[in-house]
């Protein structure tokens, strides 16, 4: 096994990391590329990697997203340096000959819409979580959220494709003064068991 991370790294990724509602700063193209290049290494079933990420940064792109935001998420999303649309491609299996070359896995999915939808959503959600952790590892703060019109976003950003939005993540430099007190978490005995 690899050595455990230092306490400071664990704090940055987990125990001191928070969901931020107020995010500022700037994020370069280079940082967004680094973010994806870390995220892509997280495991997914049959290496399907169905997640698709749209990094909304420009004023024009924010204007396209704006009509689909719920009121409670609108202001913070428009103010964030970058908002990521975390989506998944339901045609992910078409890329399996490249991504999973040692066996032809396409027939496992072709024609099985229920399996396609479940696999794309599950593994795309995992990749969205990996993106949050990768962002924290790079020193960015995150504000993941739902609270938007998925169908509207899909029509605006993914029309004519098999890609569907899942959730959004605001990225930037968080303002610690704007944080709420940390909400409680369930203790081990209420959320887990060892058999």
From TrEMBL:
| CDD domains the record matches | RutE-like (cd02148)
The catalytic activity of this protein is classed by the Enzyme Commission as 1.-.-.-
Q: Which cofactors go with this protein? A: FMN
Q: Matching InterPro entries, A to Z? A: Nitroreductase (IPR029479), Nitroreductase-like (IPR000415), Nitroreductase_HadB/RutE (IPR050461), RutE-like (IPR023936)
Ordered alphabetically, the record's keywords are: Flavoprotein, FMN, NAD, NADP, Oxidoreductase
Which GO molecular function annotations are given, in alphabetical order? 3-hydroxypropionate dehydrogenase (NADP+) activity
Highest rank taxon of the organism: Bacteria
- The Nitroreductase domain extends over 27-153
Q: Which family does it belong to?
A: Belongs to the nitroreductase family. HadB/RutE subfamily.
Under PANTHER family, the record lists: MALONIC SEMIALDEHYDE REDUCTASE RUTE-RELATED
Task: Give the protein's recorded name.
Answer: Putative NADH dehydrogenase/NAD(P)H nitroreductase V3390_01800
